[in-house]
Specification:
- By secondary structure, the protein is an alpha+beta fold.
- It has a single domain, classed as Pdz3 Domain (Roll).
- The chain is built from three helices and eight strands.
- Strands 1, 2, 3, 4, 5, 6, 7 and 8 form an eight-stranded antiparallel β-sheet that branches.
- A hairpin with a 2-residue loop joins strand 6 and strand 7.
Length: about 120
């Protein structure tokens, strides 16, 4: 059996207190397997993500009361004026969580432009 490699988009937030939170778009099949139709997977945690209680493998599906379908939508949601704080809706296993996260005191993190990744490993 031959598996086709999926090109996934990865977003990395650097600086501004986030210390390297990386998210990536997930295949529809993966999202459906956890009961979601949209969301981004957490693939790397920095200081702000760890302080907020995020874990690698979490799926962020909302930011400040907005659904998140892509890394571009996530970037737009955190760029809105909010004193560096965001409220995340997170699916961890079968549990939904509200996670408040401080991206930096009044500062927004630098956003590394999304890049295509051929890595298809997802930790759950």
């Amino acid at each position: 059996m031959r598996l086709a490699a999926l090109a996934l988009i990865v977003l990395t937030l650097e600086g501004g207190g986030s210390g390297g939170l990386s998210l990536r778009e997930l295949p529809k099949a993966t999202l459906h397997s956890i009961g979601l139709g949209y969301g981004l997977g957490v693939v790397k945690l920095g200081a702000a993500g760890e302080r907020a209680g995020l874990r690698i493998g979490d799926v962020i599906y909302g930011v400040n009361h907005s659904r998140i379908y892509s890394v571009q939508e996530f970037s737009q949601a955190i760029a809105k004026p909010n004193d560096g704080r965001v409220g995340l809706l997170v699916r961890r296993g079968k549990t939904d969580l509200y996670v408040p996260m401080d991206l930096g005191a009044g500062r927004h993190p630098e956003i590394t432009p999304p890049r295509r990744s051929t890595d298809t490993l997802l930790r759950t």
